[in-house]
Amino acid sequence: MHSLIARGDGCPDVYDAVQLSGEPFVPEITNLFPNGKPRAPLPLPEYQQVISRMKDYRQRYLDYWTSTAERTGDRPVEAVISPVTPYAGVLPGKFYPSTYSSSVNVLDYASVVIPVTFANKDIDVVSPNFKALSDEDGLNMNEYDPEIYHGAPAAVQLVGRRLDEERLLSLAQLVVEALTDYRAEFGE
Protein backbone atom coordinates (compact mmCIF):
# COMPACT_ATOMS: atom_id res chain seq x y z
CA MET A 1 0.00 0.00 0.00
CA HIS A 2 2.79 2.43 0.89
CA SER A 3 4.24 2.44 -2.60
CA LEU A 4 0.84 2.87 -4.29
CA ILE A 5 0.07 5.91 -2.15
CA ALA A 6 3.44 7.50 -2.76
CA ARG A 7 3.74 6.50 -6.41
CA GLY A 8 0.22 6.18 -7.74
CA ASP A 9 0.76 9.10 -10.11
CA GLY A 10 3.66 7.39 -11.91
CA CYS A 11 6.23 9.78 -10.37
CA PRO A 12 6.47 12.28 -13.25
CA ASP A 13 8.02 14.89 -10.93
CA VAL A 14 10.83 12.51 -9.95
CA TYR A 15 11.35 11.59 -13.60
CA ASP A 16 11.52 15.27 -14.61
CA ALA A 17 13.99 16.09 -11.81
CA VAL A 18 16.30 13.25 -12.82
CA GLN A 19 16.10 14.31 -16.46
CA LEU A 20 17.01 17.89 -15.50
CA SER A 21 20.01 16.68 -13.51
CA GLY A 22 21.37 14.67 -16.43
CA GLU A 23 22.27 11.87 -14.02
CA PRO A 24 21.22 8.24 -14.39
CA PHE A 25 18.55 6.75 -12.15
CA VAL A 26 20.00 5.35 -8.94
CA PRO A 27 19.36 1.59 -8.65
CA GLU A 28 16.76 2.08 -5.90
CA ILE A 29 14.33 3.85 -8.25
CA THR A 30 14.92 2.18 -11.62
CA ASN A 31 11.87 -0.02 -11.01
CA LEU A 32 9.70 3.12 -11.00
CA PHE A 33 10.59 3.81 -14.63
CA PRO A 34 10.15 0.74 -16.79
CA ASN A 35 11.82 1.30 -20.18
CA GLY A 36 13.22 4.55 -18.76
CA LYS A 37 9.82 6.28 -18.64
CA PRO A 38 7.29 6.99 -15.87
CA ARG A 39 4.56 4.42 -15.31
CA ALA A 40 1.03 5.36 -16.21
CA PRO A 41 -0.89 6.78 -13.25
CA LEU A 42 -3.31 4.47 -11.50
CA PRO A 43 -6.86 4.80 -12.83
CA LEU A 44 -8.92 7.03 -10.55
CA PRO A 45 -11.24 4.27 -9.21
CA GLU A 46 -8.19 2.19 -8.29
CA TYR A 47 -6.49 5.17 -6.66
CA GLN A 48 -9.68 5.93 -4.70
CA GLN A 49 -9.53 2.40 -3.28
CA VAL A 50 -5.90 2.95 -2.25
CA ILE A 51 -6.83 6.24 -0.55
CA SER A 52 -9.74 4.56 1.21
CA ARG A 53 -7.38 1.87 2.54
CA MET A 54 -4.93 4.59 3.59
CA LYS A 55 -7.63 6.45 5.53
CA ASP A 56 -8.66 3.21 7.24
CA TYR A 57 -5.02 2.47 8.10
CA ARG A 58 -4.60 5.95 9.56
CA GLN A 59 -7.78 5.68 11.62
CA ARG A 60 -6.88 2.25 13.00
CA TYR A 61 -3.42 3.45 13.95
CA LEU A 62 -4.79 6.62 15.54
CA ASP A 63 -7.21 4.45 17.55
CA TYR A 64 -4.30 2.27 18.64
CA TRP A 65 -2.17 5.27 19.57
CA THR A 66 -5.03 6.84 21.53
CA SER A 67 -5.60 3.54 23.34
CA THR A 68 -2.13 3.78 24.89
CA ALA A 69 -3.72 6.08 27.48
CA GLU A 70 -5.24 2.93 28.98
CA ARG A 71 -1.72 1.64 29.67
CA THR A 72 -0.23 4.93 30.86
CA GLY A 73 -3.23 5.61 33.06
CA ASP A 74 -3.42 9.20 31.89
CA ARG A 75 -2.57 10.37 28.38
CA PRO A 76 -1.58 8.63 25.16
CA VAL A 77 2.09 8.09 24.43
CA GLU A 78 3.53 11.34 23.12
CA ALA A 79 6.21 9.88 20.82
CA VAL A 80 7.90 6.68 19.78
CA ILE A 81 11.63 6.19 19.24
CA SER A 82 12.42 3.93 16.29
CA PRO A 83 15.12 3.30 13.71
CA VAL A 84 15.10 5.42 10.57
CA THR A 85 16.37 2.58 8.39
CA PRO A 86 17.71 -0.89 9.11
CA TYR A 87 21.24 0.30 8.32
CA ALA A 88 23.77 2.96 9.28
CA GLY A 89 24.19 4.60 5.89
CA VAL A 90 23.05 3.23 2.54
CA LEU A 91 25.27 1.53 0.02
CA PRO A 92 24.41 2.20 -3.64
CA GLY A 93 22.09 -0.49 -4.93
CA LYS A 94 21.61 -1.94 -1.45
CA PHE A 95 18.60 -0.01 -0.16
CA TYR A 96 15.91 -2.59 0.44
CA PRO A 97 12.35 -1.73 1.37
CA SER A 98 11.94 -0.54 4.91
CA THR A 99 8.75 0.55 6.60
CA TYR A 100 10.50 2.53 9.33
CA SER A 101 10.06 5.77 7.41
CA SER A 102 7.45 4.89 4.77
CA SER A 103 4.84 4.01 7.40
CA VAL A 104 5.42 7.39 9.06
CA ASN A 105 4.82 9.06 5.69
CA VAL A 106 1.64 7.09 5.01
CA LEU A 107 0.32 7.93 8.48
CA ASP A 108 1.22 11.59 7.86
CA TYR A 109 2.91 11.68 11.24
CA ALA A 110 5.70 14.00 12.26
CA SER A 111 9.23 12.66 12.58
CA VAL A 112 12.54 14.08 13.78
CA VAL A 113 15.80 12.30 12.99
CA ILE A 114 18.41 12.45 15.73
CA PRO A 115 22.05 11.49 15.08
CA VAL A 116 23.23 9.12 17.79
CA THR A 117 26.54 7.46 16.97
CA PHE A 118 28.64 5.84 14.24
CA ALA A 119 28.82 2.19 13.26
CA ASN A 120 31.75 0.42 14.85
CA LYS A 121 33.05 -2.79 13.24
CA ASP A 122 34.29 -4.05 16.61
CA ILE A 123 30.96 -3.61 18.38
CA ASP A 124 28.27 -3.80 15.68
CA VAL A 125 28.54 -7.44 14.70
CA VAL A 126 25.80 -9.90 13.83
CA SER A 127 24.91 -12.09 16.78
CA PRO A 128 25.38 -15.80 16.15
CA ASN A 129 21.87 -16.19 17.63
CA PHE A 130 20.28 -13.84 15.06
CA LYS A 131 16.98 -15.11 13.68
CA ALA A 132 15.30 -13.05 10.97
CA LEU A 133 11.78 -11.88 11.76
CA SER A 134 10.92 -11.71 8.03
CA ASP A 135 12.47 -12.24 4.61
CA GLU A 136 13.19 -8.49 4.49
CA ASP A 137 14.88 -8.66 7.88
CA GLY A 138 17.03 -11.57 6.72
CA LEU A 139 17.96 -9.78 3.49
CA ASN A 140 19.06 -6.66 5.34
CA MET A 141 21.13 -8.65 7.84
CA ASN A 142 22.72 -10.77 5.10
CA GLU A 143 23.86 -7.58 3.36
CA TYR A 144 25.39 -6.17 6.54
CA ASP A 145 29.18 -6.04 6.55
CA PRO A 146 30.78 -4.47 9.65
CA GLU A 147 33.91 -3.50 7.69
CA ILE A 148 31.98 -1.62 5.00
CA TYR A 149 29.64 0.17 7.41
CA HIS A 150 32.37 1.10 9.89
CA GLY A 151 32.14 4.83 10.61
CA ALA A 152 28.74 5.33 8.97
CA PRO A 153 26.36 7.58 10.94
CA ALA A 154 23.58 5.91 12.90
CA ALA A 155 20.44 7.74 13.95
CA VAL A 156 17.01 7.21 15.43
CA GLN A 157 13.76 8.90 14.62
CA LEU A 158 11.30 10.26 17.11
CA VAL A 159 7.78 9.83 15.72
CA GLY A 160 4.84 11.87 16.92
CA ARG A 161 1.23 12.16 15.94
CA ARG A 162 -0.07 14.21 13.07
CA LEU A 163 0.13 17.99 13.50
CA ASP A 164 2.12 17.61 16.71
CA GLU A 165 5.42 18.98 15.41
CA GLU A 166 6.04 21.49 18.20
CA ARG A 167 5.69 18.90 20.95
CA LEU A 168 7.87 16.51 18.94
CA LEU A 169 10.63 19.10 18.59
CA SER A 170 10.53 19.70 22.36
CA LEU A 171 10.77 15.96 22.99
CA ALA A 172 13.61 15.67 20.47
CA GLN A 173 15.50 18.34 22.41
CA LEU A 174 15.10 16.24 25.56
CA VAL A 175 16.51 13.19 23.75
CA VAL A 176 19.45 15.22 22.43
CA GLU A 177 20.15 16.54 25.95
CA ALA A 178 19.99 13.01 27.37
CA LEU A 179 22.48 11.82 24.73
CA THR A 180 24.76 14.76 25.51
CA ASP A 181 24.59 14.01 29.23
CA TYR A 182 25.32 10.33 28.58
CA ARG A 183 28.36 11.16 26.44
CA ALA A 184 29.64 13.58 29.09
CA GLU A 185 29.27 11.00 31.84
CA PHE A 186 30.56 7.95 29.98
CA GLY A 187 32.93 9.61 27.51
CA GLU A 188 31.37 8.16 24.39
UniProtKB/TrEMBL annotation:
Highest taxon listed in the record's lineage: Eukaryota
Keywords (A to Z) from UniProt: Hydrolase
Pfam annotation, one family: Amidase
All copies of domain Amidase, residue ranges: 47-169
Cleaved signal peptide residues: none
Gene3D superfamilies membership: Amidase signature (AS) domain
GO molecular function: hydrolase activity
Family statement drawn from the similarity comment of this UniProt entry: Belongs to the amidase family.
Protein name: Amidase domain-containing protein
Organism of origin: Aspergillus calidoustus
Taxonomic classification: Eukaryota, Fungi, Dikarya, Ascomycota, Pezizomycotina
